[in-house]
Write a structure and sequence with these properties.
By secondary structure, this protein is mostly helical. The protein has a domain of about 40 residues. The protein is globular, with a radius of gyration of 20 Å. The two termini are about 35 Å apart.
Length: about 160
């Protein structure tokens, strides 16, 4: 029996919610790579948000990207370096601060950005169909769960549970 099946069928499967979410994220990411290739977008699915942000905002810093996407600087830097190595993004001097470097799309990156916009329009429609199939808005549920845990963390919920027992 695989670990996934074990956790999915275990009576305490809810305790492994983070694991289930990681598996879902990996599934979407892996299928997203195939989906992007079908739209002639030659980008890793996990770097799409960076290309979208740079394409829409123009020259930006790595810190700007990390903050806007809610990602760690380390993860953002990893994907920036990947995009630089593949020729999608380049570093340019910041005209306002010569010590700082900005990132912008190369010509190849702009082509990928144009293709990406069409693919993302389709992906948005696909996930809307998935919402209908599920009978609820998955993104809204994820956002609501995140907000609920920001307001009242797991440890607070555990303490409340102990008080009520």
């Amino acid at each position: 029996m695989s670990q996934q099946s074990f956790l999915n069928t275990h009576p305490m499967s809810r305790a492994f919610l983070a694991n289930h979410l990681v598996q879902l994220a990996d599934l979407i990411s892996n299928q997203g790579d195939v989906f992007l290739q079908s739209h002639n977008v030659d980008l890793p699915s996990r770097a799409v948000s960076l290309v979208l942000f740079i394409g829409e905002k123009g020259a930006v810093s790595t810190a700007d990207i990390a903050k806007a996407l809610g990602q760690s600087h380390q993860i953002t830097t990893h994907w920036v370096e990947t995009l630089i190595k593949t020729g999608q993004v380049e570093r340019i001097p910041d005209p306002a601060d010569k010590r700082r470097k900005l990132l912008k799309l190369t010509d190849a990156g702009r082509l990928q950005f144009e293709r990406l916009q069409k693919a993302l329009t389709n992906a948005n429609a696909i996930f809307a169909q998935l919402d209908e199939e599920l009978g609820f808005n998955l993104l809204a549920c994820l956002n609501a769960a995140s907000e609920a845990l920001r307001i009242r963390a797991l440890i607070q919920r555990d303490q409340d549970l102990a008080k009520s027992s």
